[in-house]
Design a protein that fits this description.
By secondary structure, the protein is an alpha+beta fold. The chain is built from 5 helices and 15 strands. The protein has helices spanning about 5-10, 25-45, 55-65, 135-150, 160-170, and strands at about 70, 85, 90, 105-115, 120-125, 175, 185, 190-195, 215, 220, 225-230, 235-240, 245, 250-255, 260. The strands form 5 sheets. Strands 1, 2, 4 and 5 form a 4-stranded antiparallel β-sheet that branches. A 3-stranded antiparallel β-sheet has the order 3-12-11, with no helix packed on it. The protein has a 3-stranded antiparallel β-sheet with strand order 6-10-13, with helices on one face. Strand 4 and strand 5 (about 120-125) form a beta hairpin. The N and C termini lie far apart (about 35 Å). It binds 2-amino-4-trifluoromethylsulfanyl-butyric acid and cobalt (II) ion (CO) (2 copies). One cobalt (II) ion binds near residues 110 and 248.
Length: about 280
């Protein structure tokens, strides 16, 4: 097993260069992505009123220990937890702790396991008990945004085509796309080239080529797109305090399209739509 710090030493390259991975990389990503997806499936039944975000964090750590996955966020740039838990108006990077989940909350859980040196990064939205119609609508729009981004992630398109697909859809639903955080290349590094913006112009940015591996992880707000970072240095919230949602997959570009590494084994990637 490798920690984030060790994994970072394995792959080093010139900035701006987008690595192209071979079958070794794809099979490593398949394994890491699958373990992350299994853990996010496992957490579904634990997201209930009365549960603390710290308890979910512990569950994710323990699951990794049992199955050979090290959380990439542990000791990453001073972060000390296995997951991020972003509730309601928290956009991303919410820190797990004593906070108790309440009926009607929506929470994003973001998890990255390192398995045999490869990073599987994914996040989903969970509803706590019954949630409001507007929260449900925001979550559905966010999943559809990711789906449209993934559909644009094919060889010959550019990174800008992904962002444009997400932005045009989200804005057509009168929601907004957060600009301050982006998807990212990953593999033996947690955050690598290319950056994947969730907004932009068709045809802009580097061309997508078979072998590229990255995340798409749009953050969509019911109100304005602007965020601020709380004093803990991590928690990003919407400036206007409106609800925010996010979902994330890790994928690789293939000769014919793409391969999603973090598909839910139980087909509950969107827990709201599970049955
Ligand atoms: N998993 C997040 C991502 O999607 C990164 C979290 S970094 C942390 O890139 F330190 F905030 F955990
Ligand atoms: Co993530
Ligand atoms: Co990510």
């Amino acid at each position: 097993m490798v920690t984030y710090v060790e994994a970072g030493k394995i792959a080093k390259r010139a900035p701006g260069v987008i690595p192209l991975h071979n079958e070794t990389g794809f099979s490593g990503m398949r394994k890491a992505g699958n373990l992350t997806a299994k853990a996010l499936d496992m957490l579904t039944d634990h997201v209930r009123p009365g549960v603390t975000t710290g308890m979910l964090d512990q569950l994710a750590f323990d699951f990794g220990q049992e199955h050979g996955g090290v959380p990439a966020t542990l000791f990453y740039r001073g972060y000390r937890h296995s997951i991020c838990t972003s509730i309601n108006h928290v956009v991303c990077h919410g820190i797990p702790g004593d906070k108790v989940l309440r009926e009607g909350d929506i929470v994003n859980i973001d998890l990255t396991y390192i398995v045999d040196g490869w990073h599987g990064d994914s996040s989903r939205m969970y509803g706590v008990g019954e949630i409001s119609r507007k929260a449900e609508r925001l979550i559905d729009i966010t999943y559809e945004s990711l789906k449209r981004g993934i559909e644009a992630a094919i060889p010959g398109n550019t990174t800008g085509d992904i962002g444009a697909a997400i932005q045009s859809y989200a804005e057509s639903e009168r929601t907004s796309v957060v600009r301050d955080f982006v998807g990212h290349g990953l593999g033996q590094l947690f955050h690598d080239e290319p950056n994947i913006m969730h907004f932009g112009t068709p045809g802009s940015g580097p061309e997508l080529k078979p072998g590229m591996i990255f995340t798409i992880e749009p953050m969509i707000n019911l109100g304005r797109p602007h965020v601020k970072i709380l004093n803990d240095g991590w928690t990003a919230v919407t400036r206007d305090r409106t609800l925010s949602a996010q979902c994330e997959h890790s994928l690789g570009i293939t000769e014919t399209g793409n391969e999603i590494f973090t598909l839910s084994p139980g087909d509950i990637f969107n827990p709201l739509r599970a049955k």
